[in-house]
Amino acid sequence: MFIQQLIEISKEHINQTIEVIAMVTDMKVKLTKSDKKYIDLIIQDASKRIDAKCWEYEEKETFFKELNANQAVKIKGVVGEYQGILQLTIKDIEGVKESEIDIRALIPTSDWEIESMKKGLQYFYDKVKTPHLKELLDKMIFTTHHYEKFCSYPAARQVHHNFYHGLLQHVLEVLKYAYTVATTKKLSQRQLERLIVMSFLHDWAKIMEYKQLPETGFTEEGTMLGHIFMGAHMTLNYINEIENFDSEDKLIVLNGILGHHGKLEYGSPVLPKTVEAQILHHADIMSGDIESIQSFMKEEEGKEDTFTNKLWNMGTEYYKKG
């Protein structure tokens, strides 16, 4: 049975043999308790990621050693379930030539229209009137090198917005949520501009923390330093290039970036110390959590259960009807 998209695989397919075309995004050779080699794969297409295992690694060792990450493959495998999560046991696997597949069909992508998102960035950029704050955005967002990455990178590895244009979509959501709260609570114009700037920049360093799609995972500097430190560090470097940058604005913007995770145990080295930083923190949470829930519910479409399985990062199930 050929499956068009990974998202179509359901519990109804358990113990059935299926065929899929997908992209390999990660591979790890492991040992069983009896010291037999097997290989764990993560495969994906535009609809979903799924785990796959090949227990006959030694028989296919030459193929796997020549297989590159981010390469398209055709897999014949048996659908199984482990701890409530569907996975594939590979019975046969072969490479697929690039000429035979549209590689874009194998890369998860935002369903927001890209030109509309870019217009959204411009909309919020135009609301910043203070020259040194506007220059900071010019240097960090709207230079060609940064802009292309900012508009294409994911915002996370797996929890939320982990797709092409994901960072751009996440930042726009944060800007919208933050702006709504700020105008509702009648923040001053200067507070509003600071909030817009820190919303633009809070996850900026994810263009340094993550590998560029279709590669997945962290860069070495991302693993060692993380996006919060790198983001604040790079922002301070750019601030220092701008003549007469206001010292109060510098401290408030940097605190917003450093504190946007909201708690020390969540990776922020300091807590939010301003109203603007607190709004940013909650806007960031709202964007990430809602996207995480909606993406998870989409993955579970077609299942007859009233509730989803438990979403691990939220700690609960979600009602699917409505």
In short:
With 322 residues, the chain is an alpha+beta fold. Helix content is 40%, strand content 16%.
What does this structure look like?
Keywords: Hydrolase. One of its GO terms (biological process) is rRNA 3'-end processing. Residues 163-298 form the HD/PDEase domain. With 322 residues, the protein is α+β, with helices and mostly antiparallel strands. The chain folds into 2 domains: 6-106, Nucleic acid-binding proteins (OB fold (Dihydrolipoamide Acetyltransferase, E2P)); 114-297, Hypothetical protein af1432, CATH 1.10.3210. Helices cover 40% and strands 16% of the residues. The protein has 10 helices and 5 strands, in the order βββαββααααααααα. The protein has helices spanning 61-66, 114-125, 131-140, 144-150, 166-184, 189-201, 206-209, 220-241, 247-258, 275-299, and strands at residues 17-31, 37-44, 49-54, 71-82, 85-95. The protein has a 5-stranded mixed barrel. α5 (166-184) packs antiparallel against α6 (189-201) and α6 (189-201) packs across α9 (247-258).
